[in-house]
Design goal:
Elements lengths: L1 H13 L2 E3 L20 E2 L13 E11 L2 E11 L6 E8 L5 E9 L2 E4 L1 E4 H14 L1 E10 L2 E9 L4 E11 L6 E6 L25 E2 L9 E9 L4 E6 L4 E7 L2 E6 L11 E7 L7 E6 L4 E7 L13 E8 L7 H15 L6 E7 L3 E3 L5 E2 L2 H12 L9 H9 L8 E8 L6 H10 L5 E7 L5 H10 L5 E3 L5 H13 L4 E6 L5 E5 L12 E7 L6 E8 L2 E8 L11 H15 L9 H13 L6 E10 L7 E4 L35 H10 L7 E4 L4 E3 L12 H19 L7 E9 L5 E9 L4 H11 L13 E10 L1
Parallel strand pairs: 1-36, 2-13, 3-14, 5-34, 21-22, 21-25, 25-26, 26-27
Antiparallel strand pairs: 3-4, 4-11, 5-10, 6-7, 6-11, 8-33, 9-10, 9-33, 12-18, 14-17, 15-18, 16-17, 19-20, 20-30, 22-23, 22-24, 28-31, 29-30, 31-32, 35-39, 37-38, 37-39
Helix pairs in contact: 1-12, 3-4, 3-8, 6-7, 9-10, 12-13
Length: 783
């Protein structure tokens, strides 16, 4: 034990010191009423009769013709157990996708899904499930998060569910990008689970541990046909095989080595010869309505002019899901952005997780000394705790404005939150106060919130999936903010019978991407469409002759794209009430155009009763953590873990299998020990960290008490191992006022109760009027 205590003391002295942010939510106990909507780690069932991994493969076939991508996704479910199951699978989609069809196949039988109002579809599905009929239900939980339920998968069954969606590809700076999201990242939520509506239950999803491959196969093929010769094709996310079938055609297939590549977004980029953009007019003559899509290339970016004074507020996510790879990218990005500020600029930095910390109460001049201070603060971050994005945004927007400065808000996050609508509302409420430029960081970011913040805040969004992309993103950002490409944009339809036009108004064009207008048309397609605006100090005008364009039935996707754009306008930025007129209109659009929306779902029900009596077991398909995301996003620290601004990197941890192997080899006298994870002490106030480490004998006694609790249980539970985070609230007198378990792998009430009882007797140096301190102690238990 002496050697163990000595090791503990060394760990504490070398451990990570962190700054605890005043005002962060206090840690709660583990009572059921305090349980929040939080993801959890998947635990394999010991029941051999139950298949807990029914999803066997998911693959997509993508056809890109011009600027429109049509995607068919096939999910294969098979029950290799001995009991009937219902499979529940949460998966992502593109933020621009519009799902317009679904079917289910069981052997030779194929059932075409029908679109229904959401509640009605759920009722029909549940009725079929109870009757013993196979059924599938597709629901939209977010515009980029779907949930598939497949009921009554009998032992030995293989059920294939196919869904179809389409999306518009909009080039930026001459580069087209098709993105196929593969996994939903874990969403932070502090909403109590007890009163959460059914539409939010998907947040409670099971996840595999970091580094574990997806338990299902993944594949994708892309058939590309463009009207202009292709210049280059590449994938920045996966290894692919490219076969050119002509100057403007190519087939892209996933390399066989990437069958486990379903833990990160698939990204395909291509450029047309000469950097051209396929601008022009597409027409679709429907049976009842006609649709058009206008894409016109904007002018080249104007030359740099005198830049007005700028104020930048950098909001940086340092929560648990950003630990490791994502936060390393954020540091690289922020070093580049802040390091290139002009002396005439002002700036501030706000770091957030469960709480938030501000560099200064007012923005600072971008002097070398201030820049160095900010970069030093950012460099110390390691990531930990929840993701309270809304309070951070609210705090940033209350920072006093610098007189005469144009304000820009830069947000770096993976977007793993479920408060998208509230975030959009907040930004829209402050339009005119600042432009918003969100940077999505990671391999599978929540693009809905990243792109939505940009739309709501009249800015541009960026997604960075690799560290080497950070510099390029920073350079593009600087180009965007210096001057817009096109301002005061107006569209004149001059004789063309256009109506139901989206968007109703066109904001400043900040990126080198086409101006896009959707709509319907009546009568004969004729006339001239003119786009006017101001590029730099010059007038801009571009015309297109409608008579030269032939309406084509092949452009049927335009009706879905128009409806999707209209639905996004109605639903993206408003926190809707169930009875609102907007909800009714979205529901009507979904039913009219056969689309999946937040208020309409697809349901497919077999007519054959396949289960006669007995129960069906619901199985939630576990998801892999996105590549580069650590376990901190799910289980380490939990939603109440405090924000940690760590100064050092934590020691690499062993996997469970390695841990058990080491346990079997450990000498008997060293069994039953408790170690402190290297991010051990988190405190408030400004007194030196060493003050809490000078009484080594106290720390030795404290750890000995915890080990006594642990060793008493090892006699009955010799394999008990894992991690636990204890959170203490310490008063100004140094006494522990409150103690709770914020997270635990061990899930042992007796151990937790014993530890809580022990730590309440601990005492610490007097804070001398500094107020309450919160101390976080992550413990590692090794039998």
């Amino acid at each position: 034990m002496k050697s163990v205590l000595k090791l503990f003391s060394l760990l504490v002295i070398a451990g990570t010191m962190a700054l605890m942010i005043p005002g962060y939510p206090p840690a709660h106990g583990r009572e059921s009423e305090d349980k929040t909507l939080s993801p959890y780690f998947f635990v394999q069932s010991d029941d051999p009769a139950l298949d807990r991994l029914p999803l066997k493969s998911t693959f997509a076939v993508v056809s890109i013709a011009g600027v429109i991508a049509d995607v068919q996704v096939t999910q294969v479910y098979k029950n290799e157990g001995q009991r009937p199951i219902e499979a529940v699978y949460t998966f992502p989609a593109s933020t621009k996708a519009v799902v317009y069809g679904m079917k289910m196949s069981i052997g030779e039988r194929t059932i075409i899904a029908k679109v229904r109002e959401r509640d009605q579809a759920r009722r029909e599905y549940e009725q079929a499930r109870e009757q013993g009929r196979s059924a599938s239900l597709l629901e939209q939980q977010r515009p980029n998060v779907f949930q598939m339920n497949v009921a009554n998968i009998m032992p030995g069954d293989e059920i294939r569910v196919e869904l179809k969606y389409t999306e518009l590809l909009v080039p930026a700076e001459g580069v087209y990008e098709f993105i196929y999201p593969t996994v939903v990242g874990p969403r932070y939520s502090n909403q109590p689970a007890a009163n959460a509506p059914p539409s939010e239950k998907w947040v409670q999803s099971p996840y595999l541990h970091q580094g574990q491959d997806p338990p299902y196969g993944f594949d994708i093929t892309v058939n590309l046909v463009t009207g202009v010769p292709l210049q280059a094709i590449s994938s920045s996310s996966h290894k692919v095989d490219i076969q050119y079938r002509g100057p403007s055609q190519a087939a892209v297939r996933l390399s066989p080595s990437e069958k486990a590549g379903g833990n990160r977004d698939f990204i395909l980029k291509y450029r047309l010869a000469g950097g051209s953009i396929e601008s022009g007019l597409l027409l679709y003559p429907g049976e009842k309505e006609n649709f058009f899509l206008l894409m016109l290339e904007p002018p080249q970016r104007v030359s740099e002019r005198q830049i007005p004074p700028r104020e930048y507020i950098f909001i940086v996510d340092v929560s648990g899901s950003m630990h490791g790879f994502p936060i390393d990218i954020s540091k690289k990005l922020l070093r580049d952005l802040i390091g290139h500020l002009r002396p005439t600029d002002r700036f501030n930095v706000l770091l957030f997780s469960g709480g938030s910390a501000l560099l200064a109460n007012t923005s600072l001049p971008a002097t070398p000394a201030n820049v160095t201070t900010a970069l030093d603060l950012i460099n110390r971050q390691q990531g930990g705790g929840g993701t309270e994005l809304l309070p951070a945004l609210k705090r940033a927007l209350t920072i006093p404005r610098a007189e005469g400065f144009s304000r820009t808000v830069v947000i770096a996050t993976d977007g793993y939150v479920h408060v998208e609508a509230e975030t959009f509302d907040l930004i829209r409420a402050h339009l005119g106060d600042a432009n918003f430029f969100p940077f999505g960081i990671g391999t599978s970011v929540n693009r809905f919130i990243v792109e939505g913040m940009a739309r709501a805040g009249m800015g541009e969004s960026f997604v960075i999936t690799k560290p080497e992309e950070a510099r390029g993103a920073a350079e593009r950002f600087r180009k965007y903010i210096q001057s817009p490409v096109l301002t005061r944009v107006r569209v004149d339809f001059g004789g063309f019978g256009a109506y139901d036009i989206e968007p109703a108004g066109i904001p400043d064009v900040l990126a080198e991407r086409p101006v896009i207008v959707f709509g319907k048309w009546r009568g004969v397609p004729e006339g001239r469409i003119t786009i006017r605006g101001i590029a730099g100090s010059h007038d801009f005008e571009k015309q297109l002759v409608v008579n030269d364009v032939k309406p084509l039935t092949d452009n049927a996707a335009l009706r879905y794209l128009w409806a999707r754009h209209r639905i996004a306008l109605l639903g993206d930025y408003e926190k809707l009430q169930p009875a609102s007129e907007r909800v009714k209109e979205i529901t009507h659009l979904g039913l009219t155009y056969n689309l999946l929306t937040a208020y309409t779902s697809f349901v497919a029900i077999d007519t054959v009763v396949r289960r006669q009596g007995g129960d069906v077991t619901t199985v939630q398909q576990p998801l892999p953590l996105p590549q580069g995301v650590s376990d901190l996003a799910v289980g380490k620290g939990g939603p109440y873990a405090p924000m940690s601004m760590a100064l050092k990197e934590a020691k690499p941890e062993m996997s469970r299998s390695e841990d058990r192997a080491q346990t079997s080899k450990r000498p008997a006298e060293k069994r039953g020990i408790v170690l402190v994870d290297l991010k051990a002490i988190v405190w408030t106030g400004d007194r030196p960290a060493e003050e809490y480490l000078t009484k080594k004998e106290k720390w030795q006694r404290y750890l000995k008490e915890v080990e006594d609790c642990y060793n008493n249980l090892l006699k009955k539970h010799p394999g008990l191992l894992g991690k636990m985070t204890v959170v203490l609230a310490i008063g100004p007198n140094g006494q522990v006022q409150k103690a709770s378990i914020a997270a635990s792998d061990l899930q042992h009430p007796t151990l937790e109760a014993c530890i809580i009882q022990k730590v309440k007797s601990w005492n610490f140096p007097v804070l001398a009027g500094k107020g309450t301190m919160t101390l976080t102690v992550p413990l590692v238990f090794k039998p």
